[in-house]
Amino acid sequence: MVIRCAPFVRARASVAAAIAMMLLAAAMLSGCTGAGAGGGKIGLLLPDAKTARYETFDRPYFEERVAELGGYEVLYANADQDMSKQQEQAESLLAAGVSVLVLDPVDAEAAVSIVNAASGLGVPVVSYDRLIAGGDLAYYVSFDNALVGVLQAQALVNALATGGGGGILMVNGSPTDSNAPQFEEGALSVIDSSHLHVLAAYDTPDWSPDKAQEWVAGQIARFGAEIEGIYAANDGTASGAISAVRSANLDPPPLVTGQDAELTAVQRIISGDQFMTVFKDIRPQARKAAEVAVALARGEEVTSSVEIDGVPATLLLPVAVTRANIAETIVADGFWTIDQICTEDYEQACVEAGLITP
Question: Most buried of the four, 8, 78, 261, 283, by CB within 10 Å?
Answer without folding.
Answer: 261
